[in-house]
Amino acid sequence: MANSKAIEVSPNASAPERLLGWVDTRFPLTSTWKAHLSEYYAPKNFNIWYYFGSFALLVLVIQIVTGIFLVMHYKPDASLNAAGVPVAFASVEYIMREVPWGWLIRYMHSTGASMFFIVVYLHMVRGLIYGSYRKPRELVWIFGTAIFLCLMAEAFFGYLLPWGQMSFWGAQVIVNLFSAVPFIGPELSIWIRGDYVVSDATLNRFFSFHVIAIPLVLLGLVAAHIVALHEVGSNNPDGVDIKKDKDANGIPLDGIPFHPYYTVHDIMGVSVFLFIFSVVVFFAPEMGGYFLEFNNFLPANPLQTPQHIAPVWYFTAFYSMLRATTDVFTWVMIVGIAGAFGLWYTRAKPALKWAVPVAFAAAVAMVLLRTFDAKFWGVVVMGGAVVMLFFLPWLDYSPVKSIRYRPNWHKLLYGVFFVVFVVLCWLGTEPPSDVKNLLSQVGTVYYFGFFLLMPLWTRLGTFKTPPDRVVFHPH
């Protein structure tokens, strides 16, 4: 069948133009370029917060490219070599010491993992403060949160691969958490490990997930995230929909083509980012033990437990929530559920058909909190802290999107939330103590209260009226 969208090429066209015409009749190259770059109109008031999406895409490319080179020399084998060192650990040392520029590739990959989370966290902060999860961008946010969840899985699987002390024992602790799941916990842990302990079987299956399965899912989610974003259009610091005001040609009055304006804009940001990235790689790749821990430069030893076992910094906020969930803390959770139900009932004044099932669900939850072990609820809290982000578009009832037009005390709540999250990250890297555990519990309560009480507090206060057009001041 002939292509109904065939591109007419002038007989006098140059060879490159004829080649492009030939490609366009068989593949939507030019139309894709126009739809997503040269004729994709983005708001003209983007600020520094809008760099981090491009940075995340850049780091993804760095991780894939460096990962390919690392896989060429890495061996996922937990058996001991002639020197009594695990083959996997020895292969990493071989990359660092013997492979030309291998140390650079390895440090780029390890630094890239931390940089990935830094830019993704900042990207999510921008979404929070400007309401980028609000209608019609719910699916964009859901895809983005799925990317974050997928990224956590990718980092966890990759963390075991060097087969150092912290890799081995960190995986041992995290996998053993699944044994707390009622009824199926022990069998689930064995299924994840592939053995009764973290062993060669665990290393091989984690390697397979890290280099094949998770990256494929991650790339698919990134593509879906970008396509969904370009379908509904980008948000902006004012939270104004630029599509409602268009000229006679259908071009948004407050929009500019992504290319060349924002491509040049992002290139400048990328230059600064790569400078910082290079400084870390060449001068501080371990970053004081936060990017690469000291114990991970020691081969895994199942007979010697490190004094303090903690995950990498980008997991530590959720690890703090896990450690905060003690038997006593379950009583706090029960009081919180009862208080939340009472607040909802008095404020919303629901009909009986809603009040009864919600009251029953709250009662069941309170009973279960005392029925199952606190370790299990720690796993639930840790997972729930991430899963809750998926529901954010339906938790925020604010009449405006952007934080610019919300009450000042809303801004304070957001500021405290970000500080609490950073403190939770720090607490997760520290050895446990009574005081630090109490701080983790307070932080956990604030984290969940921030989201669960959103339907109430986001409606309160005096809101400013957003402008009809975006507020833009040329540089």
Write a concise keyword list for the protein shown above.
2 strands; 475 residues; two-stranded antiparallel sheet; globular; mainly alpha
Please work out how many helical segments DSSP would assign.
17
Helix content estimate = 55-70%
Overall 3D form: globular
What's the SSE pattern? HHEHHHHHHHEHHHHHHHH
Q: How many runs of DSSP E, i.e. beta strands?
A: 2
Low-pLDDT regions: none
Termini separation comes to: 52 Å
Residue-averaged pLDDT: 90
Strand content: under 5%
Which structural category fits the helices and strands?
mainly alpha
- Tell me about the largest β-sheet: 2 strands, antiparallel
Kindly report the spatial arrangement of strands forming the biggest sheet: 1-2
Rg, Å, rounded:
25 Å
Structural description of this entry:
- This protein is an all-alpha fold and 475 residues long.
- Helix content is 62%, strand content 1%.
- The chain contains 17 helices and 2 strands.
- It has helices spanning 15-24, 29-38, 52-71, 87-97, 102-130, 138-160, 165-177, 185-193, 200-232, 258-283, 316-324, 327-348, 352-371, 374-387, 408-429, 434-452, 454-457, and strands at 41-43, 255-257.
- It has a two-stranded antiparallel sheet.
- The longest helix is centred in the middle third of the chain and has 33 residues, at 200-232.
- The mean pLDDT is 90.
